[in-house]
Amino acid sequence: EGFVFSLKASRFCTNRRVLADAGESIDRFFGxxxxxxxxxxxxxxxxxxxxxxxxxxxxxxxxxxxxxSLAGRTxxxxxxxxxxxxxxxxxxxxxxxxGVAICVADHQVYPLIADITADFIYVRLMRGREDTPTCYxxxxxxxxxxRLRSWTDGGAPVDLPLVAPAPxxxxxxxxxxxxxxxxxxxxxxxxxxxxIERLCA
Length: 201
Fold this sequence. Notes:
Elements: E1 5-8, H1 11-14, H2 23-30, E2 41-47, H3 56-65, E3 69-70, E4 73-74, E5 77-80, H4 89-98, E6 101-102, E7 104-106, E8 120-125, H5 138-152, E9 175-180, H6 188-200
Parallel strand pairs: 1-2, 2-5, 5-6, 7-8, 8-9
Antiparallel strand pairs: 3-4
Helix pairs in contact: 3-4, 5-6
């Protein structure tokens, strides 16, 4: 009960020169029976290539193509950007205006943008190592536990970089979706279990 699936959108929607032309691909993605998930449908992740640079007008046009609802259910969207050109206030403002979450990507190269732009948080933990039994070192797990608790309780971590800080919002509980992925994949389940154990203690 309460389990939801987070879906990764098709690369045919995001891996294109002109994002404003993605409408047909987005419609096709949502027409594949996704609505059948019903109340098990969680956030939808839109992942962009590390070569994709920020173009304000084109990205705004893409965000405007994302449907607000599907079969009567409100949709939650998260964008994962991988080029440093997105580290600017105009990008954060676009997402905040539309209630689209910016993926907090803990990665060696990709920009980490921790600005809160939606009513939920989407995190991808990608610095895991196969030679670490818990994927992340214990100290790093402790740090992420604190950050996830802060977001969940309606606050914000004080140790993550912000691009365009907003006025302090009214504190309210938030859903936080965090995934161990990419680095140290064989250890990712152990990392997830170790973090869950901390959060449930």
